[in-house]
Amino acid sequence: MSTLGFLAGLAAGRLIEVAQVDDRLARHNTRLLAQAVRVAQEGQRLVQAATHSTDLCSDSDIATLRVLLFNATFLRDIGRLRDGMLVCSAAWGVLAAPHPLPPAAFTTQKGVSLWVGAANIIDRRIIGDMAARNDVVVFTAPGAFDGLPEPDSTIDSLLVTRDGAHVFRRFGRADGLALYLGDSPSEGSLRAERLTAECAPLSGPDTCAVSRVSSHAWFTLPALILAGTGALAGGLLAGLCVLWRQQSKSVRAALRKAIRRGGVQVRYQPLRELATRRLVGVEALARWRSRDGSAVPPALFVPLAEEMGLGRELSRVVTQQALRDLAGRLRDATGFYVSINVSAEDLQDDAYPDFLLRTVNEQGIAPPCVALEITEGSPLSDGHVRGIIQTLQRQGFRILIDDFGTGNSNLNYLAEMQADAIKLDRRFTQAIGEEPAGTLIIDHVIDISRELGVGLIVEGIETEAQAQYLSARHPATVGQGWLLGRAVRPEDIPLE
Questions:
Q1: What separation in angstroms does the CA of 272 have from each of 284, 339, 468?
Q2: Residue 130 has pLDDT above 50, yes or no
Q3: Which of 59, 123, 279, 353 is at 20 to 30 A from 456, Cα to Cα?
Q4: First CA to last CA distance, the chain
């Protein structure tokens, strides 16, 4: 039994080692793909901003290009093309003679020509990537992927198109590395070569990342510790460790697939004006079922997605699905809106306002029909985050403070954000008629809402007594909770 326990412990240690390597590899691959998407989106944004300008290569045009370049992070230059030749650029100004572009490595389905690892048109000592569409060409900075992969990580990676036909960039020794579809060949095995692959959402750039690392170590510290434990306790404990690690890995893999392959569903909970019970909007809520069909609470899988580096991707999946589901209703119903949760990660992403505006424009939805729920945990002390919130407000989106009353800086949040409404946390609703202190807090929040002219939304309304109390104190209050409607599929949202 001791021998079996030792061998089982050794195997369990190997599984832990492999799981740790897989987690590290998956995090690296996610970071690499996210960086590739940021670089591609910045290039697309600049190309779009510079397209259709008049008086090409005039002093004012070059000044505009330089402003665009100055605000860019991953691009080194932006230029103008005429008949396939570079005529001017932000960095070089107007060229004495037009320079022809070399043949493109490939052209995407959206008509973007790409050059990979090409010598600079002006100075061949400068090597980098280029992308061109219409009369605009952008040059990626050589250091756009600095730090990827991490030094001494021994990770090999490729950035490729979704069909695997074209390679954007190679990292490490990428010979023999190719994009695969479906489960990783190394998933669920002890093989030394570990593989992982991810693709950007279909709405994003045509980019996938695939990474590889080798793990030959068997006699690692976890393996030796578990082998000793196994020798003492037998195979039972080792077997439990194996099952636990496998289950943990399985849940993470299942969630990653659900987010990337449409396994996360969106349900909609009604928001009603308490005085009239009129339906004024809905909140979009993410829902996920595990492989056995059981519902996984959002309080569990949303933090797990954020821990895995997938929080931003989950947010975009929910936003895009909600706006597709509700496009007709939001275009036609006066005053009807959808409320969407925004994470701190979203508010630190420069591309988020552009993503949101582009998505509503694609569906023909006015920005005021979308309310963004920002939790009190968002880092408003960060000037960059405040700037993104202000950008969203200028674009016309409503801003709500979610879970109001649970943080430490409520009035500061109101002052900083100039929010359209506050959402009172459900724990205070449950205190109505039960806890004098909780009821007093609700009355105070209602007074603040009324005096500042800020809308009030109250979560967790489950009884008629709660609704009547709030309605009597502040008739304009909007309520949310089981009494007023549960979260339903888009086709089941009531008409009024």
A1: 15, 13, 13
A2: yes
A3: 353
A4: 68
